[in-house]
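Worked Example 4.2. Consider the chain below.
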Amino acid sequence: MAAAPTNQHDSDGPDPEKASSAAQIEPKTGATAVVDAATERRVVRKLDFRIVPLVSFLSGFGPGIPYLLSFFYLRHELGFRSGLFLAGIRPLATCFSGALAYGITSGHPDLPNWRLLFLVEGLPTILMAPVAYFFLPDTPQHARFLTPPEKAAATARGVRQVGDEPAARVGGLHWPDVAATLRDPKPWLTALMYFSCNVSYASLPVFRAPFFLSACLTVLTTWVADRTRQRGLVIIGLCLVASAGYVLLATCRGVAARYAGVFLAAAGVFPAIGNILPWVMNNQGTDSRRGAGMVMLNAIGQCGPLLGTNIFPARERPYYGRGQAVCAAFMFFTALLALALRALLRRENRALDRRYGTLDEQQQRARAAAAAAQSSQSSPKETEEEEAAAAVENYGPMFRYIL
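Applying the procedure from the previous section yields the following structure tokens:
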């Protein structure tokens, strides 16, 4: 979690998602369900090997996959899984797309090359549609590959997430939450960050080695951000690396220096995108708000390529210095936006600490209440403290923003 002890908001601090893993709250009853940690780990492993590979075939639904994954993974697990998916559909796929296209069109087919490419690229997606419909579950409770004890553990994880069973999260939209998202500055900031990154990414030169590096760093940095709860700092660092790469492309004329610039740009721009998408999910406190945040992100962010592909006029060939400078400026602008959003999140975390107490203090109160309830056999206070440990990914006493 992004929450931290008093006066130390940049530290890891206690993690309410992990701290409540041994005893989960049953929805609406306050009763405690004991969940074996080994069973929970087995659930996560099965999700990793069944859900993530399956969604990797749904590239057309790519921007919505992090939202879908939020129904299966906790906040500190989501970024890495999103990174695996995003690295596969963008930079890793780009490594092989040119060679694949050449192989498909080099046999002198009867169809025009562009039609053949469309068929080869489109048919697998069409064939996967019924597979996804029948085999991709809406929630862990509908996952056929989970055993009953594993489904019970997955249900407890859902309670830890939102305070209710996973099945209750499907099939509805809370419009007041959507309106609240539109009034919230945080999704606007991430949408502008996505737009800025897409301006630069749309014009990035395609070379196999730089894009392979980009795929590896997308997976690595999303994992690091999950572990440290410092996604903003990761994004800032990546954007500065990408900006330096575009500066080299804008100012240098030597082949070696410009190729180094391509490596730096690729190493920064798409890993930054891979961290921006889960950052949206991390910092909205209901499913409706997370969904609305993703809609805003894509509605604004996907307009970036419209600009990015029109800043390289033919008269500036072969170096296109002005276009590369624009890309460098947008990546630096993204770093400033991430810094501003991180400062806003720190301020809101401090306000939550003042209102509810730090996570340390809340967990100490919960342990004291549990000990008192065991001795007195009366637990109204225990139920109140247990309920604070549930729904830690929705707004409440133990919700903190991930910085």
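Residues 321-356 form the longest helix (36 residues). The radius of gyration is 23 Å. Compare this with Example 4.1 before moving on.
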